[in-house]
Amino acid sequence: MIYFLPLLAVFLGYLIALFIKPGSSIGFKLLLAFSGAYLLSVTVFELLPEVYETGDNKVGIFIMIGLLLQIILEFGSKGVEHGHIHHEGNKGAFPFALLISLCIHAFLEGFPLNTSEHLLHGVVIHKIPVAAILSTFLLQSGISKAKVFLFLGLFALMTPLGSWIQLNNGSITQYSAYIHAIVIGIFLHVSTTILFEASKNHKFNASKLAVIIFGILLAYFL
């Protein structure tokens, strides 16, 4: 399932992009807020304690490295990871910087997925709105549909590739805590940014607050 569900999430995001306008849909914004709350909660409840249980005091450094890495990646991705995109490029030009940034992000997030089914679900729920925003941008960018499918295909494969390498490369095991710490930093940045951007002027309306609370409680009780 750790290989199939991330692929399915990108496909569902593409379908959403075809039939609705993710940027203006209230339901889509609620899904995004829920995904941010759930991903943050699973990271704090499960992944964070796991890396600190190793007793290695260096993991905190790697968490901060992950957070800074995500900030750097967003120079190329323009914010797709937290549900919107600020990309100004040449119409019809293939967005290589966007592809590289998103593939690095997706590749790294695949590494810890075998540690928790809940984390897998959190990544999948998060990836659906991200894929929808990305698909909308690509379809409107003027590049050919073949290139759109190539982009989405590469993006979809990166998370399963990260999971496969984690499970099948024994030499990486000794560095798992550090890699997972980097991913924690990435998740902390992405999920908190989603929550702070959930509404204009950083104010939550009742429906967004409700789905955020639901996401936190669901992650806790599961």
TrEMBL record:
**Signal sequence range:** none
Query: Which coarse location class applies to the principal site listed for this UniProt protein?
Result: membrane
* Membrane-topology descriptor: Multi-pass membrane protein
Location relative to the cell? Membrane
> Which residue ranges run through the membrane?
6-23, 30-48, 60-80, 119-139, 146-165, 177-196, 203-221
Source domain of life:
Bacteria
Asked if the record carries the keyword Membrane, the reply is yes
* Record keywords: Membrane, Transmembrane, Transmembrane helix
The record's GO CC annotations read: membrane
Tell me one Pfam family matched here: Zip
- Extract one GO molecular function annotation from the record: metal ion transmembrane transporter activity
Name the InterPro entries on file: ZIP (IPR003689)
Q: What is this protein called?
A: ZIP family metal transporter
What species was this sequence derived from? Answer: Antarcticibacterium flavum
